Amino acid sequence: MNALNVAEYTHTLGSQAKAASALMARAPAAVKNKALRSLARLLREHTAALQVDNARDLERARAAGLAEPLVDRLTLTPKVLDTCAEGCEQLAAMADVIGEIIGMKQQPSGIRVGQMRVPIGVFGMIYESRPNVTIEAASLSIKSGNACILRGGSEAIDSNKALARLVQLALAEAGLPQDAVQLVQTTDREAVGQLITMPQFVDVIIPRGGKGLIERISRDAKVPVIKHLDGNCHTYVDDPCDVAMAVKVADNAKTQKYSPCNASEGLLVARGVAPEFLPLIGAVYAAKGVEMRVCPESRTLLASVAGAKLVDATEQDWSEEYLAPIISIKVVEGVDEAIAHINHYSSHHTDAILTTNHVHAQRFLREVDSASVMVNTSTRFADGFEFGLGAEIGISTDKFHARGPVGIEGLTSLKYVVLGEGEVRS
Fold it and tell me: Are 267 and 235 spatial neighbours (Cβ–Cβ below 8 Å)?
């Protein structure tokens, strides 16, 4: 596809999405929910066939030498597909927020003023590796009454095409426009350049992928962008804490899965509990082959752990998103130093405190400047599905419009509505 054809093609996608968005905005909740339930059924019915398409992508990825964490993100297991189906069903069961009016107040003039929640219109989604994002984006788009244009990575093209066909089939079954969810069928990178510069059709762009992709889109887009650049998440083990619980949670936050953006990359430990806690978590990490990038104090406390892979941390390690079995470890004086370290080095994605001190927990919640802040649980829960949003379009570390996991409400806007009975302004 040459540059002219790509421009014409993306222009057509935009025009079709704009037309479909008007129909989606007025679609009844029952019809949107029918499409979501149909999609859940189709995903389960076609699991075996979807894995055949996915296998082609996996074969190409491995032949191209794609790193194993990225291959992991690319894989559509039956569990991944069932989770996608569950997300569709969870969304279908949720109340429809479109048309909801909030904050209606009577004014001295007699008019009543409130705000109505409405769809954004058309969003463009640009993502890498994970083909399940196709379903997450499509299902949230349907529930929120939007239209969307999806551009997945070239490494997942066969998987994404197969998933998009099921989405359009579900839309058709419910009597909704198939153009409400369109997948960019070309792997030509010029399609991305076109998609992010069509404000006449696209209302917001949501990139989800590596830092390079997101930096490029943030720089070049001519429409608003909802984004996060990286996921340098922290778990802070406080003094006092339940040490056994802290070991369990710090283990899960790092090792439950290495590749997601909500895995903890940094472990901060209060000096008062470090001599007891660090050898215990060090043994867990050593057994799982996790490399520990350590400060001098934590190295001393971990030196006796059998099989521990200890590497002296550099300044860069405190800011690093590893997406791998590596974690930085630093002993801090207490909650003040932990909060200061996180606010300086973190990517403002997700950070957690493990503590039995209520005052420390409340300070951490108030003062840590991140999209999700947690007490006594794993950072791995920073996810739209786990937060009960049904699915997520991505995580936003921006402070305007949407922050944290972006679900239905993140894909809507508020407009003022005014109700009167003939009042005129004097």
Answer: yes
Single-letter code of the amino acid located at 274: A
DSSP-derived 3-state class of residue 41: helix
CA angle 396–391–256, rounded 5-degree value: 80
pLDDT of 1 reads 67
Both tokens of 263, joined, read 């895995």
In the prediction, which pLDDT does 94 show?
Answer: 93
Could you give the angle at which helices 47-63 and 29-45 cross, rounded to 10 degrees?
70
CB neighbour class for 417 (10 Å; exposed up to 12, middle 13-18, buried from 19): middle
Tokens of 109: 């003039």
Distance, in Å, from the CA atom of 272 to the CA atom of 238, rounded to the nearest integer, reads 8
User: Taking the model in full, what pTM does it have?
Assistant: 0.85
102 beta partners:
115
Give the C-alpha distances (Å, rounded to integers) separating 349 from 47, 132, 235, 327, 409. 32, 21, 12, 16, 19
Both tokens of 386, joined, read 């786990």
Q: Is the peptide bond before 240 cis (omega within 30 degrees of 0)?
A: yes
- Contact (Cβ atoms closer than 8 angstroms) between residue 261 and residue 231: yes
Return the DSSP state at 259. Answer: S
What SS3 state is found at 204? strand
372 within 8 A of 349, measured Cβ to Cβ: yes
CA distance 32 to 269: 48
* Percent of the chain residues topping a pLDDT of 90: 86
pLDDT tens string 92-107: 999 999 999 999 999 9
Q: At how many degrees (to 10) do helices 157-173 and 132-143 cross?
A: 30
35 in Cβ contact with 27 (< 8 Å): no
CB contact at 8 A, 350 and 233: yes
19-to-16, 25, 177, 291 alpha-carbon distances in Å: 5, 10, 9, 52
Summarize pLDDT for 46-91 with one digit per residue, the tens: 999 999 999 999 999 999 998 887 888 899 999 999 999 998 998 9
Query: Tokens 């491995």 correspond to what residue?
Result: 62
Using 70 as the pLDDT threshold, list the residues of the chain that sit under it. 1-4, 390
Q: Write the CA distances from 183 to 142, 151, 209, integer angstroms.
A: 14, 6, 17
Q: In the structure encoding, which two tokens stand for residue 353, read together?
A: 């405190």
Q: Per residue in 12-41, pLDDT tens?
A: 999 999 999 999 999 999 999 999 999 999
